[in-house]
Write the structure tokens for this entry.
Amino acid sequence: MLNVISKEEAVACVAGAAAKAKIKTETVSLPDAAGRIAAEDVRAAESLPPFDRSTVDGFAVVAADTFGSGDAIPAELTVAGECRMGELPPFSIGRGQCAAIPTGGMLPRGADAVVMVEHTERDGELCLVYAGVSPGANVVRQGDDISKGEAVVRKGTEIGVPEIAALAALGVYEIPVFKKPVVSVISTGDEIVTGTPRPGEMRDVNSFLLSALCGNMGCEAIRYGAVRDDREQIRAALESCLERSDLVLISGGSSAGTRDMTAEIIDSLGAVHFHGIAMKPGKPTIFGTAGGKLIFGLPGHPLAAYFVFRLIVSEAIRTMLGLPADQPFAKAPAAFNVPSNHGREEYLCVRRSETGEAVPLHTKSGLISVLSEADGFIRIARNTEGLKKGDTVELYRL
Amino acid sequence: MLNVISKEEAVACVAGAAAKAKIKTETVSLPDAAGRIAAEDVRAAESLPPFDRSTVDGFAVVAADTFGSGDAIPAELTVAGECRMGELPPFSIGRGQCAAIPTGGMLPRGADAVVMVEHTERDGELCLVYAGVSPGANVVRQGDDISKGEAVVRKGTEIGVPEIAALAALGVYEIPVFKKPVVSVISTGDEIVTGTPRPGEMRDVNSFLLSALCGNMGCEAIRYGAVRDDREQIRAALESCLERSDLVLISGGSSAGTRDMTAEIIDSLGAVHFHGIAMKPGKPTIFGTAGGKLIFGLPGHPLAAYFVFRLIVSEAIRTMLGLPADQPFAKAPAAFNVPSNHGREEYLCVRRSETGEAVPLHTKSGLISVLSEADGFIRIARNTEGLKKGDTVELYRL
């Protein structure tokens, strides 16, 4: 019999071990930083834009000179010069003066607004302004986009397109990121074969499934493949994987006996911290550590292995990478009742109906094809009275 | 003056050209297929599971033998054999018989249900069954997960974790996918510098931003970098990029004059199909083709370039990859009014409030930092009466 702990206890235990196993950092070039996790805050060393900039083609002015101007009563200004793209205007303007300026051009000293060219009429050194503008009109001020000292990327955030753009604008081309955690993935089971299965045999699904999940989380997955339910083979596989990985996943073991054997081997290599979680599916999960590396024994059933990865293993990886815990992405009313569930947190794949309800995908014994049809999954807390149709449920990403 | 066309006309024109430029296919190994786009339907060559399988540890039975059984009146069955994992049971069972079976084991011929071991008591050749089961109980039937002939991956779908699992289960280890479209990205502008900008100069943001967007869409991006607003430099850059890419993006051109020059160069290399789209931002967009390759001239302002990519360029890439058009991911009530917009489809970054409303991120002239704060963007159709607070808006992913 397993001495099961709650899912919350399991996550806390796993996160504690993962925090000690924190991942090393490295520096990557900006284009390679997409999808990586920042290992430090990156702060702006300068303001953006670095100067007051026009957002239109027109004339830089002292706004006060244009107050009260209109179609009938233009302001008459003297053109003091031309602002050119990419150049510091070599002059300043004072009252009664203006300067031609292109979109993106730097305002000359003295100017505090820009009049659109459509509202002006130029005649040599003279410019008639047919519209009044307020100070700041058609101008982006220095620092409006990013202020000097501001954190444009925070430690533990995934670097996406907005961050790439901000870092490029600031000229930060070398980015400190966490190294990709290396995860080795082993499948076990006497019924697991690599070639064509004979009657009663199965192909290895879990090493592919779990490697793909690791890849999605920004890990480098090493697919060890399948081994027999054999003490020496399992020990050899674990030892080999521990050497080259931060984390080892071993799934399967067709019987309780094999799972106990796996736990014994892990214990002999390091220590088993728990064996059994009050979750459904996923009860026979094993967690141990050896030499600071994390080892998970996952159920052999692919959908059970999937949920243990999503709920337990992924939290270890998040902790290693300094990421916050997984959050639901939406709430929805349940389209169904679920009876009370006797002490195990339960997971159900759901799809969203046209009207936005969460509809359970009933599936005998959790076949893997349910993942293709699902829009997410829900958690049903342990020891609840069950779920009633219309109750709000939280949807988690697959 | 630009002769603008509607965004819908622009997308149709671009999609038409992209359909002719369809991308070649290649075969990748299963682990490398994650995130790639399937180039063909992949159909199951067999059923999954390939045999009737027990979902529990227990005894395979003829269900009819257990009807009416209970704690007080067990059915008395004879144990005809043991089913072992990974083996075809070398016997069949008939009425009055049963066989021990592990979770995942193959049912012997004649059996149509499994009784959980907890509801049985075995004594040598005799097994007492203390519960009635229906036909099919605790059994996953052949083909319940995937039926032979079923498409487990459809052409034009992104291969994700569920597909990887299904393909592994079916033993499909070589997957036909579309080659990654190769996109070259050029920035232009006399004010764009690669080193430290002097007053009035700017760093190149667009080549990084657009390359990251291409990478997110599964393209291989080649960052050409920045060139001056110079006819010969722009022509040389375009010719070099056309040679090695399926698609070329050239952004910037600090003035209408430069944009016209870019359009002239594209026209001399092939043909310009349109110059100007009724969208805001993004009006001065150019689209042309040369030798079957697509060329986009994008605005220099990073946020404008971003929206043109998301709304126009991305639809070309989707067409090339056989993907459906981009869809909104959520609907939300608008938290604000927007006045009528005079003939250009408009795009606004929004964040979702605690209560789920779409809140506009007001930003003077669309600074790039707005992308970091946004949860998505909305489209405001051209020639509408404007948007009223409470109107339902559709949210698009950034």
